[in-house]
């Protein structure tokens, strides 16, 4: 079975509005496909993700089916735009719902997210990419994901001007290189973890 990837785009724009984060995530999925990974992107803004820190917040909550997609995948990509130097409010909502993994374990005492790798994508027209990557890496690791080496890619435009990543004729070479490294390392580590899962957790 090929590896599977799920990417959640945390743009504030619902489909079908154009999104720079959509473009960068699409480039990641294309890079992953070159390593035999089958990927899918969804937009958090298209769903009713209720506030809370459990895996099901009741009637009308779309998170349970998103949660299933995350756990059905081997690679999880979390993408966010930069707003006022921080990740989007929707991205924070996703992190808060992932918090439920802290209390959910499999029959060997491991968090249900164990054995899955995660990467991060960030886009924006102001400073803050490294800050956001650091926060998302820590949050994803806290809830059981494994972070490969160089598992982030980003693009930040010049401050106080209007160019967006989605409008560029071609992605900068540095961003392309980071995207390729993210895909290669995520696919490599996910393959290793699929073959040799983390050991049973001691009680």
TrEMBL record:
Pfam families on file: FMN_red
| Ranges of residues in domain NADPH-dependent FMN reductase-like | 5-156
Keyword set for this entry?
A: Flavoprotein, FMN
- Xref: Gene3D superfamilies: 3.40.50.360
List where this protein forms a coiled coil: none
Q: Which domain of life is it from?
A: Bacteria
Give the InterPro entries listed for this entry. Answer: Flavoprotein-like_sf, FMN_Rdtase-like_dom
**Descriptive protein name:** NAD(P)H-dependent oxidoreductase
**Species name for this entry?**
Halomonas colorata
């Amino acid at each position: 079975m090929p590896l599977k990837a799920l990417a959640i785009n945390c743009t504030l724009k619902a489909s079908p509005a154009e999104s720079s984060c959509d473009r960068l995530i699409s480039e990641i999925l294309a890079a992953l496909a070159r390593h035999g990974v089958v990927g899918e992107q969804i937009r958090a803004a298209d769903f009713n993700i209720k506030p809370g820190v459990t895996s099901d917040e009741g009637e009308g909550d779309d998170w349970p089916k998103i949660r299933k997609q995350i756990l059905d995948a081997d690679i999880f990509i979390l993408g966010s735009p930069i707003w006022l130097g921080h990740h989007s409010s929707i991205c924070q909502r996703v992190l808060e719902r992932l918090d439920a993994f802290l209390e959910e374990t499999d029959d060997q005492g491991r968090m249900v997210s164990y054995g899955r790798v995660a990467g991060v994508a960030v886009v924006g027209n102001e400073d803050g990419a490294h800050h956001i990557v650091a926060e998302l890496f820590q949050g994803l690791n806290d809830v059981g994901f494994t972070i490969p080496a160089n598992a982030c890619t980003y693009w930040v435009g010049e401050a106080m001007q209007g160019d967006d990543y989605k409008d560029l004729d071609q992605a900068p070479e540095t961003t392309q290189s980071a995207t390729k490294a993210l895909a290669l390392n995520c696919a490599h580590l996910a393959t290793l973890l699929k073959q040799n899962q983390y050991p049973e957790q001691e009680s």
